User: What shape does this take?
Amino acid sequence: MYVDSHCHLNFPDLKNDLPGVLERMRQNQVTHALLASVTMPSWPGLMEIVEATPNLWGSVGVHPDEEDTPEPDVAELVKLAQHPKVVAIGETGLDYYRLSEPLDWQRERFRCHIRAAREAGLPLIIHTRNSAADTVRILAEEGAQEIGGVMHCFTETWDIARQAIDLNFYISMSGIVTFKNAQVVHEVATNTPLERLLIETDSPYLAPVPHRGKLNDPAKVVHVAEKIADLKGLPVARIAQQTSDNFFKLFNKIKK
Assistant: This one.
């Protein structure tokens, strides 16, 4: 009934409790989850998990925050993306929050990932923080609208969301949407067309209310759907069904 479109089950806190994580998913009707790659050295461990678990899938890519890490080129990303359980390129994008200029290396990495996604025919998983204008500009310059993707854990304004949607991207809401003071995110969740929404946990981070401050896991994506339903004045079952349908439409290598 529910799908977690972005999580990190290969991170130690969740990997060490994987049977428990999967059981809680089952109990809460979370049928599938996508594990987002953050570095190339950690990618084989991510793939070990998804290869062994029928309802888990993965991406390949390097997070923009990772500065001192092996850098894949387009050819390597495209080759790895041929794996049957790799369904996206990323997470990639720009992050100007923790790092300072010069960040040409980060922008070039982003362009590399977009080019790989276009060549592989797979959608992009986009991370953007304090960098929205450059993120949208580079997506447009590199023709990312041809393959689309998702703006994950979205915290930017409705204007940026609308620009991303115009570029063939989905908007994914995380546990932040349940936070009382997240008014900008509430506005985006309210205004984004239902057929362009995804839900996620970004676990082990950003546990939603009523679990805020605790360890997050994919089972808690239910609370994200419930908050969106409240904001839109719709039944939670409608949110669950549409966001699941959107997930399978975007990540179309996944078999239900």
Q: What stands out?
A: The longest strand covers residues 86-95. The mean pLDDT is 97. The beta strands are 2-7, 30-35, 56-60, 86-95, 124-129, 149-151, 169-173, 197-199.
